[in-house]
Q: What sequence folds into this?
């Protein structure tokens, strides 16, 4: 059994990832500045209060771990927002401190939460560039296996907006968790040096539908789920012009991971709720189809 530290364990991804690692038989140590909001999470594994900006907190949290999943970060998709200075300090200094602690503890397996926002468009985006670079440096210096996961979007939204989001670079947080657990296990198995993948939904649609979704999407959805066209119309779901799709074959080969949650699953869920007379207008999706 491996001991895996999850930083940012009280966040949206952190809770799902911690549950997934525990279910896969790992001993989980959860680290965060804030405790998890759901008391049921207490059963998942030890919780350590840790501010990643404080090196001694991080040294204590990492000590004795075989792998580290580094999710702790600030992004302003959450309310209330924080300053760019805080985003930089948490996302860059925090990542540096985590890697210094990994080095001190001899950790050879690290997974890093990068983002589709990777780039130069904002301070947050740049922190993911610097984070990935720090991770690559960690591999160069220590030989560790490092996975860089560029997650697409899974921030909580109203249910119907969430369904639309799945077609606009959204990913269900359950797919985020299975990808992260698979990457952790592959890193523990030393199956790569540095591996990077996008973590994205796969709606399994043909190229011509993907490229012209506004025209062909509803008809395609109807072939997958009878009644789809009526649902899209009844709820005025806005379809994008086209749907972005990345090649996830390397992740399938190396990690054995494929996304499982998609737009048609959302439509089927919506159909069930309609049939049950539920008021979906007031429903909230916490980064996934709600229970
Ligand atoms: N949510 C998305 O749509 C999305 C998309 C792409 C990438 N990501 C990345 O995935 C990771 C997880 O995102 P999330 O949406 O679950 O975030 P979240 O905000 O829900 O969770 C982040 C957690 O980090 C903790 N944290 C913040 N500062 C800390 C510090 N100094 N020390 C320790 N813990 C600290 C917070 O308390 C929180 O529990 C982040 O790295 C984020 O940048 C998220």
A:
């Amino acid at each position: 059994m491996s001991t895996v530290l999850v930083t940012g364990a009280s966040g949206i991804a952190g809770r799902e990832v911690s549950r997934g690692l525990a279910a896969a038989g790992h001993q989980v140590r959860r680290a965060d500045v804030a405790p998890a909001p759901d008391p049921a999470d207490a059963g998942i594994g030890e919780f350590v209060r840790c501010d990643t900006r404080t090196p001694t907190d991080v040294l204590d949290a990492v000590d004795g771990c075989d792998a580290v999943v580094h999710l702790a970060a600030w992004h302003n998709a959450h309310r209330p927002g924080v300053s760019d200075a805080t985003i930089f300090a948490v996302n860059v200094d925090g990542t540096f401190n985590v890697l210094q602690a990994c080095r001190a503890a001899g950790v050879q397996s690290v997974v890093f939460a990068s983002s589709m926002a990777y780039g130069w468009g904002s301070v947050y985006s740049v922190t993911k560039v610097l984070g990935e670079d720090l991770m690559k440096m960690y591999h160069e210096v220590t030989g560790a296996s490092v996975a860089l996961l560029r997650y697409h979007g899974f921030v909580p939204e109203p249910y119907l907006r969430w369904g639309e989001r799945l077609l606009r670079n959204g990913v269900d947080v359950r797919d985020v968790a299975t990808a992260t657990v698979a990457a952790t296990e592959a890193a523990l198995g030393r199956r790569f040096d540095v591996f990077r993948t996008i973590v994205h939904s796969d709606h399994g649609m043909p190229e011509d539908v993907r490229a012209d979704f506004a025209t062909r999407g509803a008809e395609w959805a109807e072939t997958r789920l009878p009644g789809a066209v009526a649902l899209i119309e009844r709820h005025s779901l806005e379809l994008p012009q086209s749907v972005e799709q990345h090649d996830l074959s390397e992740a399938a080969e190396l990690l054995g991971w494929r996304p499982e949650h998609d737009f048609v699953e959302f439509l089927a869920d919506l159909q069930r709720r309609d049939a049950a007379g539920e008021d979906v207008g007031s429903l909230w999706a916490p980064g996934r189809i709600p229970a």
